[in-house]
Specification:
Elements (H helix, E strand, L loop, with lengths): L8 H11 L4 H8 L3 H14 L5 H10 L18
Helix pairs in contact: 1-3, 2-3
Length: about 80
């Protein structure tokens, strides 16, 4: 089994939020977890994918098909009036 295949469900959720450009604090609020827990998940993801920064992380995740290009887009926001 590849190292990338060992991402937990929560790590996959955090990875998608990282791909959308959210900060650790925003990810924590969106997933209803602590900022520290988010940091630990981010560390584990980057370790498992053997990356040193977010750019490398996103390239590795796309290459391994853990993300799609659609995952890189932020969710659609409602119109402002």
């Amino acid at each position: 089994m590849s190292r990338a295949a060992r991402l937990t469900g929560r790590e996959q959720q955090v990875l998608r939020e990282i791909a959308r450009g959210y900060s650790n604090r925003e990810i924590a609020a969106r997933l209803n977890i602590s900022v520290r827990t988010t940091e630990v998940h981010r560390y584990h993801i980057m370790t498992k994918l053997d990356t040193k920064n977010v750019a490398q992380l996103l390239r590795a995740a796309l290459r391994r098909r853990l993300l799609t290009m659609a995952d890189l887009l932020p969710p659609a926001r409602g119109r402002k009036r």
